[in-house]
Please model this.
Amino acid sequence: MPDASEAITFLGTAGARFMVSRQLLASGGVWMDLGGTQILVDPGPGCLVHAIRQKLNPSRLDAIILSHKHLDHSGDISVMIEAMTAGGTKKRGLVFAPGDALSQDPVILHYLRSYPERIETLVEGGTYEVNDISFATPVRHQHSVETYGFVFQTPRHTFSWVTDTKYFEGLSSHYKGELLILNVAMLDSKVPPRYLPLPLDHLTLACARKIIEAIRPRVAILTHFGMKMWRAGPREQAERLTEETGIHVIAASDGMRFDFSRLENEK
Ligand SMILES: [Zn+2]
Model:
């Protein structure tokens, strides 16, 4: 009997380099159990440690997906490939990553590229399969390295994850579903001078609101918080967005498990 339960666990919710360097929030990505198919997305620093603490077994992973090669997303990717393949002794599992994470300045070490069953390169407009789950990378994001967000399709649900990007016209039109995950690194676009010249290539809370209002999912989950967003209180910001949009917005927290059955209770 196929397992119909679906849940995602946020191993960490820290976004961008300052939060990750200081570990005020954990980093490490998101573990999805989609009807028994185990998919890990963006295994940042600490992923292996947090997965084990959550009693999630890396040797059961079916796939590892990387949105882009920035270290807060990819720090543990080679570690997790090794764990997925029992140290390279079992050729198993799929790995998906943008081309520039595999070519110049690669974040996936060459010596373990033969360990997984297959490594697939993500491209704009691509669709991919892991067991009975499919996912699409509809549009290349505006970020300093090659970056994609995802639309996942399971036998039971459609959901999207808008990963790191600068906001651009038409962004929302590429994403859909009952659940929307958003990387909201920035509270607003005012950056302290000591951090400049950092590229302003992340979503702010105002951008998140625009995307939520355009897609109107049943539930939106905010994650990948930068310093200012963290100081402002992600939970308070999510409550405010819920009031403003009429859509249930949740701030992810480290170790939070979201069960998809919760979507049935939302209108
Ligand atoms: Zn990034």
Remarks:
- The chain has a mean pLDDT of 93.
